[in-house]
Amino acid sequence: MLVGAVFAFQAILAFGRNLTAPPPAGEPFASGPAPAHSAAFLHVLLALVVVIAVARLLGALFKYIHQPPVIGEVVAGILLGPSLFGRIAPEAAAFVLPPTVAPSLGVISQIGVILYMFLVGVELDTDLVRRRAHASVAVSHASIIVPFVLGGLLALAIYPTTSTSDVPFTVFALFMGVAMSVTAFPVLARILSDRQMSRTRLGSIALACAAVDDVTAWCLLAFVVGVVRSRVGGAVVTVALATGYVAFMLLFARPLLAKILRRFSARPASRPHVMSVIFVGLLLSALATEAIGIHAIFGAFLLGVCLPRDLDLVERVKTRLEEVVTILLLPAFFAFTGMRTQIGLVDGTTAWLICGAIIVVASVGKFGGTLVAARIGGFTWRDAASLGILMNTRGLMELIVLNVGLELRVLSPTLFAMLVIMAVVTTMATTPILGLLTRGTDLAPSSLPKTT
């Protein structure tokens, strides 16, 4: 059969050589080297291999030293960028992560962040927030208001040296306030789980506070992005549209989604269709908030919040998506962030003093606001301090906010690098300081006020 096929094809070729075709309409066909887009694709694949391998390695190393693995992955992205790899081995860095892969990594990282924010919304326990509302609302809002105001005061001092004249001070101050106010809910949850504190009363209060913190911070970010994109005149319309969309999702889309998912989740044959509905809804929600003028990540987060928590199908979607996002897509985001982070721009005594001031203001604002509010609420000094340290965790959520600021050109590359350093330092400080505060205690529920 094979021999017959060879002879048959030879006969076809012999007859075909005598055939003619009309002249080409465009560029003539020519054999040669691989096209440029193929070479770029190969570089993207190579970059992803290196990024994932280094991120997993440093994530495991940081976990070994009792740090959140995500911080190791963040550090991996920074080390692979111009701050270290590009400085000590520029030729190798240009081969592994050339500037041509940045647009492709940017698209992959944006998709990863959208899916990650969807997972954050799914993991947000709204029942926990409602149960702990009396204790969490005051503490969480104090942990936002104080650093937000301090961020505005810091903007007065650093605006002339770290910004440019095309960025209005109002926009700069608002964004600095938001950057100081963020708490990383997923990283905080991971720290509490690793220390077996999730089911203690302190842990549940911290999770509830971080959840309220996240929602408030994303609303603030949506407002600031609306101001940046529309300026003050159009920001009112943007905020009104965003408020209307949130009300639509919570009051109409949420019960409708719950009804659809509960009706079809019991039928195994229809589950793929239901998962398609979830993903289409996720993309449409992200598209809607992007069109409104805030950001696609807010729409993804909002749809995650609207999904019912008691369905096995939702848990299956979360489980299947989590590994792809955390192992494949988020390392691309860290690498993309690392390519934009140039620690070398923080040069000189003045620049490092400004960076130190940012770290101090961010820490004092979060820790101090939480400590005072928790103490007034009846917490002991130790528990109030522990809660303040936990709320100072920033991690990946801060990087998402900072990348939005850099894309909008509100943050200069130098200030972006300073704020990335602040995010890493404050998150890394959480675990060892919390260990010192809770040493020798069992965090018994009775140590916290009964009103919580």
**What name does CATH use for the topology?**
Na+/H+ antiporter like fold
Q: Work out the radius of gyration.
A: 26 Å
Helix content: over 70%
Count of helical stretches: 18
Sheet/helix structural class: mainly alpha
What is the number of domains? 1
**Name of the CATH architecture:** Up-down Bundle
Terminal CA distance reads 80 Å
Task: List how many beta strands DSSP finds.
Answer: 0
Biggest sheet overview: none
List the uncertain runs: 442-452
**pLDDT averaged residue by residue:** 80
Topology pattern, helix = H, strand = E = HHHHHHHHHHHHHHHHHH
Text of the CATH class = Mainly Alpha
Strand content: under 5%
Shape: globular
Explain the overall architecture.
With 452 residues, the chain is mainly alpha-helical. It has a single domain (51-439), classed as Na+/H+ antiporter like fold. Helices cover 78% and strands 0% of the residues. It starts with a helix and ends in a 14-residue tail after the last helix.
